[in-house]
Every structure is written in C-alpha cells, then in structure tokens.
C-alpha cells in the first residue's frame, strides 16, 4: 500500500482527441462528458485532494505541472481517445514516477491486453470499481461511504446541469459500443437520481446523459416522471432533457406525461430515414412508427426533438447519401440534425467484426480515427468522390442558404408549440452546422489544423498531440505511436488480433 505523508492527490481526466484538431476544447458544446465527476464519487472528499480535467471541455492537458501533481491518475474517454490515455500515462510516468495510473472505459474494455501492459490498473468494471482500486492503493479510509457523483467539482458554466438515471441499453444496434460491451440495462434507484438533481447549487435544466432514459420498465419510468414533475413544481428543477430510444414514442401518452413532468427536449438516434439502412443497423425499434410522424408529434407536444444522422459509404451509394442530406435540409417539418456522422465500426461491435471479416478496412486504419469523421472502411463509390461528402458532415458550410431557408420554415411551422428558448436552441444548432467554429472555441486561427485533414484513415495526419511535449525515455515513446487496426496490406494488425479473444464475445439481443 502506498501512503504519502500528505493526503493522496488524485487527478481524473476525460482524455479526448478533437476530430478537427481544435486545440482549445469545446466549452460551449452540449453534451459534455461527466465520467470524471462520477469517478470522483469513489473517494472520501476529506481524505484525498481531487482534481478533475476534461480535455473535451478545456482542450488538451499541456501544463507540465499537472503531470507532477498526482499520486493517482485516473483516465476515461471514448474509444478514439485510447491513444490519448496512453500519452497522458507516459507524461505522468516521467513527471511523477510513483503515480499509479488507472484507466477504464470502452477502449480499455475492448483492448484488455494492450491496456494491462500500459496502465497499472486497466478496469473492466463500472465507475464503482475505482473504489476497489483506491482501497488497494491508498487504504480503506480514502473510499467514500456513499457513492455519489461530484458535480460540485465541475467548474463549468454551461446552459445545463447533468445527471444520469440509468446505465447501458436494452437494445443491440449493430454499430453501438454498448452492443460490443453486452452489459445489461440497469436503471438507478430513484433516491440516487433525486440526490444527483438536488446536489446542484445553481438550478438549471438538467440533461440526462443516459443512453436510454426510457428503459424497459414502464412502471419505473412513470415513477421517474412523477419525481421530476414534483421537483419541477417545487422549483428545484427548471425542466429537463433526455436521450430516449424510439420505442418511447410508441405510446402517445409518454409525450404528454413527459411534457407535464417538465421535459423541454428529447434526443433520439434517428440514424437514417432509409428503412433498409435501419434494418442493417439492427435498429428495428425505429421502424415501429414513421420517423417523420414521431418528430412532428414531439414538436407539437412542445418538446424539442434532436437527433443524429449516420451515413455508411461502405454500403450506401454516394447519390443516396446526398439525396438523404438534401431531403433533411429541405424538409422544414423536422429540425436539422444535431450531428451528422459516418457509421463507425467501433471495436468489438458486430459491424466491426463484419468489416474485418469482409476485409473492408482500409490499410493503416487507426483507432484514433474512430471519431465519426474519418473514413475507416472502403466506400462503394470511388474514394475521391466520397471524400467531399465526408468533409461536409463536419462542416455544412456550402449549404448556408438551404439552412437559412429551413430555419425560417421550421420557425413558422412550430413557433406556437415551442417556446422562444426552445426555438432559439434549435436555430442555434442550425447556425452551428454552417459554422462549427461557433462552438469550437478557436481562439487562435493559426492553431487550426483541419486544413491538412484528408478524412481517410490511411493518410489522415495524426495531429500535433502525437509529438511529445517534452523528452521521454525510449520505452515511453512507444505510447506516442498510434494504435493500428490494420497494417499496410489492410490485414488486422497483430496488436489488435492479440486482443481479439475478448472482442469476439457473442451478443444476445434483448429488445
Ligand atoms: C457526453 C458524451 C459525449 C461527449 C464527451 C464524451 C466523453 N469523452 O466523455 C462528446 C460530445 C465528445 C461525445 C462524442 C462522441 N460520442 Co459520445 N457520448 C456522450 C454520452 C452522452 C455521455 C458520456 C458520459 O459522460 N457518460 C457517463 C459516464 C459515467 O459513463 P461512461 O463514460 O459510459 O463510462 C462507463 C464505463 O465505460 C465505465 N468507465 C468509463 N471510464 C472509466 C474509468 C474507470 C477507471 C472505471 C473504473 C470505469 C470507467 O464506467 C461507466 C459506467 O459506470 C454517452 C452516452 C452515455 N450515457 O454514456 C455517449 C457515448 C459515449 N458517445 C458515443 C459516440 C458514438 C460518440 C461519437 C462517436 C458520436 C459521433 N458519431 O460522432 C463522438 C466521438 C467523438 C470522438 N472524437 O471520437 C457512444 C460510444 C462511443 C465510443 N465508445 O467511442 C456513447 C456510449 C453513446 C452511444 N450509446 O452510442 N460524446
Ligand atoms: S438504442 Fe442502439 S444505438 Fe442507442 S444506445 Fe441502445 S444499442 Fe446503442
């Protein structure tokens, strides 16, 4: 057991690579990741010094003093951030050689062998597993008696507060990271939900980051709405937003009940307006009702509807993808998507295995490029023709006129059912699609790197973060070489193959 004379110092970081190589973070973006605040809940606040840092919010961690500070570095992040976790681990090993490095999250779970050799603790469990690690490293006194997320340590000033009322999902879409993990959907106890909501000193609308806020237990869902309605009436909660799966809309009462309970907006993974594509994604819950009807009903009920659209050039023709984008830009019955992205063959998903089996991964495919904006697999059409379309997903700047026309038509149609605040949020989203720099916090244009991006994994520049900030011993320099999915011939890279036993766990559909 490692017991420093002073209180142990724990630094918890959301590691992140920005797809556009924006070096300044995205403090204005919603949603923000809250994994660090949840992980902090493992520690007794009086027994440790805790510091949280989100690279997504604040930009890459570059202050060398920060690397010498901790006795324990805890890392979390999405799949594409795995190399960034390796880099941060290397910096800390140099500046604070006794620091214990703990990592978890989807990439760590899917790359158990690589992770075990990179971090001192490569966690496969949920946030609570950190308590076990903390106890082993510092002793039982540092562990919190009662686990609760430490939102009080977030120094943000965003438009919403965050909470979580459940974990994982009861569906199994072919491209989803949660399908790869195959963990059962779990709803939290309502007391725990209420505790999270009451923990904020400044009341703001709360965004539930659950993958599936609706879940598979109707009675529990209605109890959750009762709780929220009560908190809204008592003015503890000025409204809420959540991510729901399409089955939520099958019962029209759900919209009415949600509105009564103070719901301001819902996000739902529409993914595509093409039924065949939805079937290919194993997302049949999206086919129960016509998608356009669902969106109209939600907006007319006075609830903002937000969604993401996915495009898969490996199975979709360029002209079909362009037609779908055109349809959305011209249809003012629905809002513009909150984001447009490529379908990512994330590690361990059925889609990943399918693309590996059919040898569709491009040569020199990199884990870092699993960001939704870089082509990882061969398109049906010629690469050169597809790239401008892929580029347009990150920045719709050629469509400003269509977007302006769409926004006006949408405003005219829904100005009576949506409040000024709700409408402003949707129109702001449209503006962001033309000008992502609005939320990219690009303080210095000279620091932009996206002009060099090719949007093809084989040639995509890694970006400046792969150059170490300071001199590193040889054995740590390897933490700065990218994790490869395929080699020069497009064959699965031996390092990935070495982790594949865990990756081929069969999945069961729950529905
Ligand atoms: C906020 C958010 C974001 C934010 C910040 C993400 C971040 N770095 O934290 C932003 C906007 C950047 C983002 C982007 C994207 N996101 Co996102 N996002 C979320 C969201 C809504 C909340 C994340 C969160 O804070 N969760 C709360 C924490 C507590 O849970 P968690 O992070 O899932 O961690 C669990 C375990 O992994 C584990 N764990 C995690 N870390 C650690 C560490 C230790 C030590 C331990 C013990 C355990 C542990 O414990 C938790 C369970 O208890 C999730 C949905 C969700 N509910 O998780 C999607 C989600 C993470 N995003 C997802 C996707 C697909 C994307 C995009 C690819 C979208 C796109 N197509 O463009 C991009 C990726 C961008 C990129 N550069 O690669 C997927 C998974 C992605 C992946 N594995 O790579 C999710 C799960 C949504 C989904 N169901 O599909 N996202
Ligand atoms: S509905 Fe599908 S995409 Fe959404 S979280 Fe569940 S499995 Fe993932």
From TrEMBL:
One of its GO terms (molecular function) is iron-sulfur cluster binding. InterPro entries: BchE-like (IPR051198), Elp3/MiaA/NifB-like_rSAM (IPR006638), rSAM (IPR007197), rSAM_sf (IPR058240). SMART domains: Elp3. Pfam families: Radical_SAM. The keyword Secreted does not apply. Its cofactor is [4Fe-4S] cluster. Residues 155-381 form the Radical SAM core domain. Keywords: Iron, Iron-sulfur, Metal-binding, S-adenosyl-L-methionine. Gene3D superfamilies: Cobalamin-binding domain. This is Fe-S oxidoreductase. It comes from Microvirga lotononidis.
């Amino acid at each position: 057991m490692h017991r420093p004379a002073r209180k142990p110092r724990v630094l918890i970081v959301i590691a992140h690579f920005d797809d556009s190589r924006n070096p300044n973070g995205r403090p204005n973006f919603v949603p923000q990741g809250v994994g660090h605040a949840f992980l902090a809940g493992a520690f007794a606040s009086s027994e440790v010094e805790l510091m949280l840092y989100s690279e997504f919010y604040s930009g890459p961690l570059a202050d060398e003093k920060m690397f010498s500070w901790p006795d324990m570095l805890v890392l979390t992040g999405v799949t594409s951030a795995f190399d960034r976790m390796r880099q941060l681990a290397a910096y800390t090993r140099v500046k604070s050689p006794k620091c214990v490095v703990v990592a978890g999250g989807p990439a760590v779970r899917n790359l158990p062998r690589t992770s075990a050799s990179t971090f001192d603790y490569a966690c496969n469990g949920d946030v609570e597993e950190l308590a076990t690690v903390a106890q082993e490293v510092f002793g039982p006194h540092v562990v919190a008696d009662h686990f609760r997320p430490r939102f009080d340590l977030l120094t943000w000033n965003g438009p919403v507060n965050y909470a979580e009322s459940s974990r994982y999902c009861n569906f199994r879409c072919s491209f989803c990271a949660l399908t790869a993990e195959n963990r059962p959907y779990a709803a939290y106890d309502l007391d725990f939900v209420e505790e999270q909501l009451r923990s904020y000193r400044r009341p703001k609308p709360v965004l539930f980051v659950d993958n599936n806020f609706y879940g598979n237990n109707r009675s529990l869902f209605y109890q959750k709405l009762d709780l929220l309605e009560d908190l809204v009436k008592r003015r503890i909660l000025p409204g809420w937003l959540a991510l729901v799966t399409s089955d939520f809309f099958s019962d029209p009462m759900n919209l009415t009940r949600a509105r009564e309970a103070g719901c301001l907006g819902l996000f739902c993974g529409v993914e595509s307006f093409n039924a065949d594509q939805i079937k290919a994604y194993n997302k049949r819950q999206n086919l129960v009702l016509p998608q356009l009807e669902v969106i109209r009903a939600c907006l007319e009920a006075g609830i903002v509807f937000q969604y993401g659209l996915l495009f898969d050039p490996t199975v979709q023709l360029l002209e079909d993808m362009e037609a779908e984008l055109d349809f959305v830009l011209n249809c003012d019955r629905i809002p513009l998507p909150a984001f447009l992205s490529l379908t990512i063959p994330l590690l361990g998903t059925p889609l990943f295995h399918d693309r590996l089996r059919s040898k569709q991964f491009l040569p020199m495919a990199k884990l870092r490029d699993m960001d939704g904006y870089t082509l990882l697999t061969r398109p049906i059409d010629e690469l050169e023709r597809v790239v401008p379309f892929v580029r347009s997903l990150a920045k719709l700047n050629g469509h400003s006129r269509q977007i302006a026309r769409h926004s006006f038509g949408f405003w005219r149609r829904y100005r009576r059912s949506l409040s000024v605040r709700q409408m402003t949020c949707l129109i702001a989203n449209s503006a962001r699609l033309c000008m992502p720099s609005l939320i990219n916090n690009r303080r210095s244009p000279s620091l932009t790197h996206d002009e060099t991006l090719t949007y093809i994994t084989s040639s995509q520049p890694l970006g400046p973060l792969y150059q170490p900030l300071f001199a590193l011993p040889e054995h740590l320099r390897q933490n700065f070489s990218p994790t490869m999915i395929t080699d020069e011939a497009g064959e699965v890279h031996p390092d990935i193959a070495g982790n594949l036993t865990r990756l081929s766990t069969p999945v069961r559909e729950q529905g």
